């Protein structure tokens, strides 16, 4: 064989990192992760590092260990003859719509410092009027959801606001209509509600029980943390009213109520937030930094403390999983689920504009609740249905085509971040928030991959982990 016939193996794309005391090699082409020994880890680094010294590697590990490391890298697909896989083509048609968010009212009894629907001084969010969604519009939206769901056997409707419990009568009648549709179509309907819990009184709780409506509560943690941002219109803290109702709800549904907490600027002790909310009886807690552009958005300087807190929670998760205790930190357990399905390439971070739509109180459709009120991004209405060209645009925006995501090592685990956070003033989807949101997500993904290595024998679900839901398939509305 002469030199021209010699074909050197190609080095597959990979990401290597040290997390939770493990050295991990993640193959971005096969989506498989390995806990590597020192020789394999350093050899992998040297393969792509022009300045690496072969002599130093040889001196450190010896020829036999290095040969074994090279053989294991080859066996695991890090050295391969085939070209890297092509990015998948954009689908020709969008998927069925399986989730609808109904913005029952844009009114709210709170004025949270980070609310994306806020207009300073306005009594109602998004500048909308006082009327709220009519029952006819809500019914039409639910009819549309079932009609657009194609062959899907399961659909979801989320009652959103503003504060949807300000529209309890419409909510009750809409839920009853949904249950009728469930009977007539034979499809299963997951109903849920996103609320600040301050109005979650006995009547509302009875309705949740009667119509089997799931309930996600927005609560930010201990009283001082919560009340710093979540105040009533006249400036009082809302923790006491919300917590009393939450206790009644979690007593009714022990371990089954999810909480969502927003981390404002300066709130970095994620463990304290999660611990407090689990102590109120929530089954799981999802936290998100307050998005950029609001007065209390998380600054990049807070990120190192959040990463350290997440790492402590990952260590706690090892202890909990080994002891058979339920793990309630949803950000981490969600990444554990995403990284467990290693063969499934995530193409989207959520279903916004494709399988998920939001219906505004005046009957217009938007990609999700956060876009409501942005006229530029309205995409049809409940009468005529969603605009197909707009749905195609969102379907074409998979993670391999998202600006700023196409070269990210974790793109097929992450799927791309929140579209709304990347929204530019001209209505186009721009780059994700790399400094805050991506840094936190990537660190959580690394923790999850290291946790798989650490808990390798823990097969299947984590202790107390529920079965996958519609949300897992279509992306959580955050
Ligand atoms: S971590 Fe950030 S850059 Fe990477 S895929 Fe997710 S959103 Fe895109
Ligand atoms: S992740 Fe962002 S774009 Fe997607 S549904 Fe949630 S808020 Fe909307």
Major sheet: 8 strands, mixed
Number of domains: 2
Mind telling me which CATH architecture of the largest domain this is? Alpha-Beta Barrel
Distance between the termini: 59 Å
CATH topology of the largest domain: TIM Barrel
The total count of helices amounts to: 14
The helix-strand sequence is: EEEEHHEEHEHEHEHHEHEHHEEEEHHHH
DSSP strand content: 5-15%
How would you describe this protein?
- The protein has 14 helices and 15 strands.
- It is of the alpha/beta class and 478 residues long.
- It folds into two domains: 9-80, no CATH class; 99-364 and 458-474, Aldolase class I (TIM Barrel, Alpha-Beta Barrel).
- The strands form four sheets. It has an eight-stranded mixed beta sheet, with helices on one face. It has a three-stranded antiparallel beta sheet with strand order 2-3-4. A two-stranded antiparallel sheet has the order 1-5.
- Helix 3 packs parallel to helix 4 (168-185), helix 9 packs parallel to helix 13 (434-454) and helix 10 crosses helix 13.
- The longest helix is centred in the N-terminal third of the chain and has 22 residues, at 54-75.
- It is globular, with a radius of gyration of 24 Å.
- The chain starts with 9 loop residues before the first strand and ends with a helix.
- The chain binds iron/sulfur cluster (2 copies).
């Amino acid at each position: 064989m002469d030199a021209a016939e010699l074909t050197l193996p190609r080095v597959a794309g990979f990401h290597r990192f040290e997390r939770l005391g493990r050295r991990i090699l993640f193959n971005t082409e096969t989506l498989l992760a390995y806990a590597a020994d020192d020789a394999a880890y350093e050899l992998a680094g040297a393969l792509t590092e022009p300045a690496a010294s072969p002599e130093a590697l040889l001196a450190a590990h010896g020829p036999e260990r290095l040969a074994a490391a090279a053989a294991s890298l080859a066996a695991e697909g890090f050295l391969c003859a085939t070209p890297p896989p092509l990015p998948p083509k954009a689908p020709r048609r969008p998927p069925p719509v399986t989730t609808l968010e109904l913005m029952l009212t844009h009114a709210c009894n709170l004025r949270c410092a980070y609310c994306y629907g806020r207009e300073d001084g306005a009594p109602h969010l998004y500048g909308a009027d006082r009327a709220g969604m009519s029952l006819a519009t809500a019914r039409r939206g639910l009819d549309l959801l079932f009609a657009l769901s194609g062959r899907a056997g399961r659909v979801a409707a989320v009652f959103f606001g503003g504060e949807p419990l300000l529209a309890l009568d419409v909510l009750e009648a809409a839920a009853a209509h949904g249950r009728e549709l469930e009977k007539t179509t034979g499809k299963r309907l997951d109903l849920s509600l996103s609320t600040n819990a301050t109005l979650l009184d006995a009547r509302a709780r009875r309705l949740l029980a009667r119509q089997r409506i799931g309930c996600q509560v927005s609560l930010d943690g201990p009283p001082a943390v919560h009340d710093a941002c979540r105040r009533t219109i006249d400036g009082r803290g809302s923790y006491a009213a919300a917590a009393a109702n939450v206790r009644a709800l979690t007593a009714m549904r022990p371990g089954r109520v999810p909480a969502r907490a927003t981390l404002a600027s300066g709130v970095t002790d994620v463990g304290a937030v999660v611990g407090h909310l689990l102590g109120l009886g929530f089954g799981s807690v999802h936290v998100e930094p307050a998005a950029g552009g609001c007065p209390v958005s998380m600054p990049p300087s807070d990120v190192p403390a959040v990463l350290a807190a997440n790492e402590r929670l990952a260590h706690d998760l090892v202890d909990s999983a080994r002891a058979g205790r339920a793990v309630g930190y949803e950000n981490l357990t969600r990444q554990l689920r995403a990284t467990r399905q290693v063969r499934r390439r995530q193409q989207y971070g959520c279903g916004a504009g494709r399988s998920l739509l939001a219906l505004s109180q005046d009957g217009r459709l938007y990609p999700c609740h956060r876009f409501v009120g942005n006229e530029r991004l309205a995409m049809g209405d409940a009468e005529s249905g969603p605009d197909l060209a707009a749905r195609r645009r969102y379907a074409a925006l998979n993670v391999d085509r998202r600006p700023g995501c196409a070269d990210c090592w974790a793109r097929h685990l992450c799927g791309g971040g929140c579209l709304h956070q990347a929204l530019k003033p001209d209505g186009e989807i721009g780059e994700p928030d790399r400094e805050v949101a991506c840094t936190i997500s990537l660190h959580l993904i690394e923790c999850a991959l290291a946790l798989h290595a650490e808990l390798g024998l823990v097969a299947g679900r984590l202790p107390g982990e529920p079965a996958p839901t519609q949300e897992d398939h279509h992306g959580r509305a955050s």
